[in-house]
Specification:
3 helices
Length: 140
């Protein structure tokens, strides 16, 4: 529970209370407008409490996520030799590795010529060469 009282979480708690209060107040305001004869306000009178419920839902989900993450955190191990990957059960989490760069190789076009595809590619090339043009201006 200590994790939920950090400065970041206090800001989240306060934001949730302020937003829910504001959304419910706006919903009540729309109810009073609807009672005065503004028919469209009935929809808004339902919409604002739904927004408040969504804020509570997101806040509750984040609280659960933070509590679940804190319960699964393991204390850091003492600095020592790392276990070999072949040890059974040694690595419970996958290691984060550097990303691998894969060179981009153009796709091979080994196939019969397709006149429709060639025409479409000419059309796309024309659109790329004429950025201000509309598709209807295509001369082909």
């Amino acid at each position: 529970m200590k994790r939920l009282w950090t400065p970041g979480w206090i800001v989240r708690h306060v934001a949730m209370v302020v937003l829910v209060g504001a959304f419910l107040a706006l919903g009540w305001w729309q109810v009073s407008r609807a009672a005065a004869g503004n028919a469209i306000s009935w929809g808004y009178a339902i919409e604002w409490p739904v927004f408040a419920g969504f804020v509570v839902f997101v806040w509750w989900r984040e609280v659960r996520h933070a509590l679940r993450a804190s319960s699964t955190d393991e204390p850091p191990a003492a600095a020592g030799p790392r276990p070999a990957a072949s040890d059974a059960g040694a690595a419970t989490r996958p290691e984060v590795r550097r990303p691998v760069r894969v060179p981009r190789v153009p796709a091979a076009t080994a196939g019969p010529d397709d006149p429709d595809l060639d025409e479409y590619n000419r059309y796309l090339r024309w659109l790329n060469d004429n950025p201000g043009a509309r598709p209807g201006d295509y001369p082909g």
